[in-house]
Structure formats: structure tokens, C-alpha cells
Amino acid sequence: MAATETLTAERILEATEEVLRRYGPAKATVVDVARVLGVSHGSVYRHFRTKAALREAVTHRWLSRTETALAELTSATGRPAPERLHAWFAGLFEAKRHKAGDDPELFATYGVLIDESSGVVEEHVEVLVGQVRAIVEDGVRSGEFTAPEPDATARALFSATAHFHDPAYAEEWRKNTVEAEFDALVGLLLRGLRA
Amino acid sequence: MAATETLTAERILEATEEVLRRYGPAKATVVDVARVLGVSHGSVYRHFRTKAALREAVTHRWLSRTETALAELTSATGRPAPERLHAWFAGLFEAKRHKAGDDPELFATYGVLIDESSGVVEEHVEVLVGQVRAIVEDGVRSGEFTAPEPDATARALFSATAHFHDPAYAEEWRKNTVEAEFDALVGLLLRGLRA
């Protein structure tokens, strides 16, 4: 890649993902990232002050792609809240399943990075729970849901669906009964929310 | 321990747990178990034909203690089904939390053994799901619950409560908000089951 292009944080993060994919999380270094970009490692450090900061930033970027995709479902206030909530959890499951299934090596790599940087994951979970809460609150306002404490309810919903988004269960996502199990669970949760 | 006592499978399993606790899962051997019992390792092999079989049996024994304790709640048909279901999940959570908190080393040891013998865990989950299903079916019969497919519902309930029994979440069980989260989730699930 030509060094004459402006070196942006985004370009560094792209290159970092590429390097992680190529060498794995144990071997990837900032020097590798600089080499891919055709710049000195000092130039990379001007954007990310430590290797840990760079790894956190690339993990954050990976997780936030899902947040952005789901934000659309959150704000589609024209649709009934139960339908949106179902679509939101289906979208989350689909996104995680794609990440795990389409590129298992990169998924495993991010698994390692996630274990290193729990703060990034907690932030990700807070963003997702916030989106669920927004849908629950809309449903309460429209009289479709009963939820005296929308925040606690959003957390309960997120916890209840862990089998369909927590990477710890990624092995189960290939079972041919998994869709039916997802629908049974979300159906039960939506009945519990009904006004 | 005197070799003159009859060498039962139960005595061997007790000694195996003791040896596992003392040496850890990586180092514990059948010879260690025989030594604790004051018998030859051949005598142990007459009860358990391989080291793997012995480890599976001790894991099964550990898991089945929880099953036995919960079976009482399952069969207490005099109590309302929603109350029994709440008590059953609270009992499961309490049992797992005790195992994790009272003796973390033994809990970690069984974690290793469980990874070795997935068949034993699947059987354990089937027994537990069967108990949940029995309570759901009672609730349907008494008109307290609506569940067209009690088996799918029981599996959904078990999956939904993973945060409160799957050892993968053991770290979270010490949080001081965990009881409130458990109640919020089970409350939501019970509302979903309401006839």
C-alpha cells in the first residue's frame, strides 16, 4: 500500500485486522502492521500509543459493526415493538453466526483479543442492552409491552438469549434445531412482555 | 483406609474425588486412588475398566447430586406450578453457586473432567430438562401454564437461564446484583408461561 496515502486510524485498523488474520493474535506485531502499510512503526504509534491500545481499537471496530447494523432495527419505530424485538434478536444471532461461520479463524482471533480487553466487551454489551431497552420502552409507550423496569427487562432479555449470541455457544449454532430453539425462546419472552 | 472393608464402586468414587482434590486432574492417577484405598490398582480396574471410565463415573456422581436434590422440587405436586418452577431454578442456581463458591478448586477440577466427557454432561442436561418439562406439564394440566410443546418450552427455559447455571458464567455469580437479575428473568419467563 502506498505510504503517500494519508495514514488514517481507519487504514491502520484495516491493516491490523489483515495482519491478525495472517499471523494470528500471538505473533502479530505493530511492525507487521507498519510493513503492510509501508510506513514506519513510529507512524502507527502516533495514532495508537501502545500495542494494547491498537488491539483494543480493532476489537472495538469489529464489535461495533454489529451495533451499527442493529441500530437501524432499533430506530424503525414504525413497526410493532414485538416484531422489532424479534427482528433485533434474530439480527444479532445472524450477525454473530456469520462472523463465527464465515471466517472461523478471524472469529477465534477476536475471541483471544476479547479475553484481553474486557472493557471493550462491557461497552459493547451496554450498547446492545441500550438498543433492547429502547425497543422495550417504545413498546411500553405504545401499550404493547408491560415492563415496570425497562432497564432490568432489557438485561433479562439479553441474558436469556445468551445461547444465541454469546461466542461461548458458537459450537451450537450449526445444529439444525437451532432456529426452532431460537423461535421458541423469543416467543416465550415476547409473551412474558405482553401488556 | 482398611482394605478389609468391601471395595464398592461408591468407595472408589469417594477416593477418586479425594485424589482429584489433592493432585488435580492432570496428575491424579488410578494408582493414587488404589493407594488411598489400600488396595491394588487391579482391584480398582475390576470396578472401572479404564481411567477414563473412572473419571466419567466420578463426574456423573458429582452432577447427579444436583439432580437428586432438585427431583424433590419436581415431584412436590401440591405446590402451584409457577412457584415450583421458580423454586426449581433458584435451587439449581444455588446448587451450582455453592459448588463454585465453596470449593473453587474442586469446581475447576470438575470443569476439566466435564470437557473430557461430553456424554455425561448431555445426560445431566437431559435429566434437568426432563424435570423442568414435568413441572411445565403439571402446570398445563392444572391450567396455570400455556405451553403447546412442553418439551420445547422446557428447553427454552433451560437455555434462557444459562447465566444462572452454566459454569461458563460462574464469575458473574458473585456480583451483588445477581439475585435481582435472576428474579427479573424468571419473572419474565413465568409471565410468558401464564395461561
List descriptors.
homodimer, 195 residues, 74% helix, 9 helices
Task: Outline the fold blueprint.
The structure is a homodimer of 195-residue chains.
Chain A: H1 9-27, H2 30-37, H3 41-47, H4 51-75, H5 81-102, H6 104-116, H7 118-141, H8 150-160, H9 178-193
Q: Can you give a write-up of this model?
A:
The first copy, chain A, is mainly α and 195 residues long. Chain A folds into two domains: 49 residues, Arc Repressor Mutant, subunit A; 136 residues, Tetracycline Repressor, domain 2 (Orthogonal Bundle), CATH 1.10.357. In chain A, 74% of the residues lie in helices and 0% in strands. The first copy, chain A, is built from nine helices and no strands. In chain A, helix 1 crosses helix 2, helix 4 runs parallel beside helix 7 and helix 5 packs antiparallel against helix 7. The mean pLDDT of chain A is 93. Chains A and B meet through helix 8 and helix 9 of A and helix 8 and helix 9 of B. Chains A, B: This is TetR family transcriptional regulator.
Order of helices and strands of chain A: HHHHHHHHH
Question: What assembly state would you assign to the polypeptide chains in this entry?
Answer: homodimer
Helix/strand-derived class of chain A?
A: mainly alpha
Overall average residue pLDDT of chain A: 93
DNA-binding region (chains A, B): 29-48
Domain HTH tetR-type (chains A, B): 6-66
Keywords (chains A, B): DNA-binding, Transcription, Transcription regulation
InterPro entries (chains A, B): DNA-bd_HTH_TetR-type_CS (IPR023772), Homeodomain-like_sf (IPR009057), HTH-type_TetR-like_transc_reg (IPR050109), HTH_TetR (IPR001647), Tet_transcr_reg_TetR-rel_C_sf (IPR036271), TetR_C_27 (IPR041478)
